[in-house]
# Entry
Amino acid sequence: MTWLTNQFLVAMPFLTNSLFEKTVVLICQHDQDGALGIVVNKETSLLLEDILLELDLEFEPKPFLKTPVLCGGPVQMQRGLVLHDSKKSWAATIPVGDNLNLTMSKDVLEAISEGRGPELCLPLLGFSGWESQQLEEELQNNFWLSTPADNSIIFNTPIEQRWQRAGSLVGIDIASMSGVTGTA
# Structure
């Protein structure tokens, strides 16, 4: 079995009227017990500075605090997470890939507010989860394309372009694909 940690799942075009329509999910953990991922291209109405204010953290206004908070998925949507580029870890940090971590503890937000946080970060609310074999079934049913994750898509590509850019990693123009799939 090949685990999909540090892979993108790119939603197929026929997943319309779904929470995962035109999404890119970064798989942060995947093993025999299931998978945990985060959607990296669906904005909420919040900004990073809103989260810091909600937590009563003091900070100096800086442009990067205007970073949109993303909806990481439908599970525990009130839970804050930070995907970041630092090799440094905090109380609840999961290594995802080379120089890519997911932190689920408040201390990373405290570090950000104090100016000692990671250089690049993506704040999220909620995550996506799959039970054992659930993700494998979805892949067999052609719900997703999988490809190695690319940090430049996560941190340097405009949010509205991430789905197409992630699809291009597989060598296709995903927006021009048919919504009809089949198996041979």
